[in-house]
């Protein structure tokens, strides 16, 4: 197995159609106070919450490829799903509008909120997205893909009867299905790994990249990217919804599809997929005192706002892994900020209680 250069990988990826939605590269800088407190050589934050589309986030990268795919299929409508404060759904709505498509969002009520007109939903309404709130029995857990696609298929049939051509895509733009036949979300995150490799070329590749993992494509793309570049970097996924034994097959599937899509000469096995489900807390989208605490701490120490669903759990995991010695004093860490901060305003009651 031979490593690819960043330029070689970029040329392979750039063969895929893409619309420009982001301001790249996103900043990468050291968290001085946190690095010192945890006794680690270096913790850097990759600010993918500053991608430039509405309030930013990792999904903007994915949507550059997904919207290009939708446009190539002559879609006039994009239909997807998520939970109530899904940053994926917000960014999808914004990207769709920017590209001239109608966004339809199926939002599953996986947790309770005192108001549905705050945070991401407020902005989605300002964007003119069609929003359908759907009950689910799975509180504290992200929606099941099969259940969600059943509902999306019904919505799509109604749209076709009305003369529209809808494009269906899974939550997070991660799993193939609907109208997305290739792992385009993961493809985008290979580019992010190339970006990180170039930004750290002078000081050396990080030992670990820590990222919240909820639908799998961000972690899979980073992992395949690091492997293809021949880096020592390991990708740590902090689960936000599912147990690792249930989630690992999803990350594996996306990663293997990505390798096949690009025709990469690399091998992967389950040892490459590092997942921690110790930080699920009370469940997906449920704000605990620990989540509120880490948001306050990082905001006060670094002036960095985390979101209450994804990055707060990832930071809880990073801090705990450092204190337990899994991350050592000699390690260089990159923490991916995946965005989602508008949800802070929707969870104000829980965060301040």
Automatic annotation (TrEMBL):
Pfam families: PALP. SUPFAM superfamilies: Tryptophan synthase beta subunit-like PLP-dependent enzymes. Gene3D superfamilies: 3.40.50.1100. Residues 22-339 form the Tryptophan synthase beta chain-like PALP domain. The modification N6-(pyridoxal phosphate)lysine is found at residue 59. It comes from the Bacteria. The active site is at 86 (nucleophile). Its cofactor is pyridoxal 5'-phosphate. GO terms for molecular function: D-cysteine desulfhydrase activity. The keyword Nucleotidyltransferase does not apply. Signal peptide: none annotated. Keywords: Pyridoxal phosphate. Belongs to the ACC deaminase/D-cysteine desulfhydrase family. This is Putative pyridoxal phosphate-dependent deaminase. It comes from Candidatus Saccharicenans subterraneus.
């Amino acid at each position: 197995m031979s490593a690819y250069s960043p330029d070689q990988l970029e040329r392979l990826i750039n063969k895929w159609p893409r619309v420009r939605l982001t301001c790249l590269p996103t900043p990468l800088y050291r968290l001085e106070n946190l690095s010192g407190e945890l006794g680690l050589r270096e913790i850097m934050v990759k600010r993918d919450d500053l991608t430039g589309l509405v309030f930013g986030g990792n999904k903007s990268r994915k949507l550059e490829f997904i919207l290009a795919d939708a446009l190539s299929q002559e879609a006039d409508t994009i239909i997807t799903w998520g939970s109530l404060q899904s940053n994926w759904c917000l960014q999808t709505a914004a990207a769709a509008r920017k590209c001239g498509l109608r966004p339809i969002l199926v939002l599953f009520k996986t947790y309770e909120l005192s108001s549905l007109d705050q945070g991401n939903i407020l902005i989605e309404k300002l964007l003119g997205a069609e929003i359908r709130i759907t009950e689910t029995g799975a509180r504290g857990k992200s929606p099941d893909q099969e259940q969600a696609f059943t509902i999306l298929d019904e919505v799509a049939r109604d749209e076709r009867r009305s003369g529209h051509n809808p494009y269906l895509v899974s939550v997070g733009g991660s799993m193939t299905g609907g109208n997305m036949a290739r792992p385009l979300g993961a493809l985008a995150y290979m580019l992010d790994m190339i970006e990180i490799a170039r930004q750290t070329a002078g000081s050396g590749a990080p030992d670990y990249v820590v990222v919240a993992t909820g639908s799998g494509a961000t972690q899979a793309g980073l992992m395949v990217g690091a492997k293809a570049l021949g880096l020592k970097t390991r990708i740590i996924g902090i689960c936000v919804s599912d147990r690792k034994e249930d989630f690992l097959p999803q990350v594996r599937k996306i990663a293997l599809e990505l390798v096949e899509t690009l025709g990469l000469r690399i091998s992967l096995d389950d040892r490459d997929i590092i997942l921690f489900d110790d930080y699920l807390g009370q469940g997906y989208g449920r704000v605990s005192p620990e989540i509120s605490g880490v948001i306050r701490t990082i905001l006060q120490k670094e002036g960095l706002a985390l979101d209450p669903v994804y990055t707060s759990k990832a930071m809880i995991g990073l801090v705990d892994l450092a204190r337990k010695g899994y991350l050592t004093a000699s390690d260089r860490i990159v923490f991916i900020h995946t965005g989602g901060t508008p949800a802070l305003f929707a969870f104000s009651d829980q965060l301040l209680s």
